[in-house]
Sequence to fold (184 residues):
Amino acid sequence: MGELEAGRLRGFGFGVAMDEPYQHYQFAGRADVVAWDLERRAVLHIENRTAFPNIQEALGSYAAKRSYLAGVLAERLSIRSGWLAVTRCVVALWSAEAMHQIRIRAETFRSACPAGATDFQAWSAGRPPSRGGATSGFVLLDPGPDVPDRRRFGSLDDALRTRPRYRDYADAAARLKRGIRVHS
Fold:
């Protein structure tokens, strides 16, 4: 998932970092993928998930990163007045395993990721949001080969009403390795 995201974002000329460390006093961790556009003073933080075995741990870690990562990164990149636009997103594999947890905890995900998929999709199209503020969204991702862009990304609503495209991470990894196109 990170390979696909990083390659796509770098292709648009954005700065990209993988497994980006941060520390803010007692809070420390790593962001899966971070991208930035210095001209627009916009940053994107992606938290990839192939499953949610412990939802409290996953969203607790995401909450700490939502609170501190953008500020730490702005300081590291010498952006003195901070970011104008901050997009944070939980990106889940479009699998039965992930979607089961999302479906039984839909309101938890709506609370943690109220902004939906719009800002992430803007970044993914090479157009970071130009308006100010911070958002937290949710996206389903199908990393399969030859998946058209219009079908690659989904929203929380899609997670609640569509069919999974993979059983689990192992199924997705095997299909990616074999280069099998997913039909749904």
User: Anything to note?
Assistant: The two ends are 19 Å apart (CA to CA). Strands lie at 15-24, 27-37, 42-49, 85-93, 133-141, 153-154. Residues 85 and 132 are 5 Å apart (CA to CA).
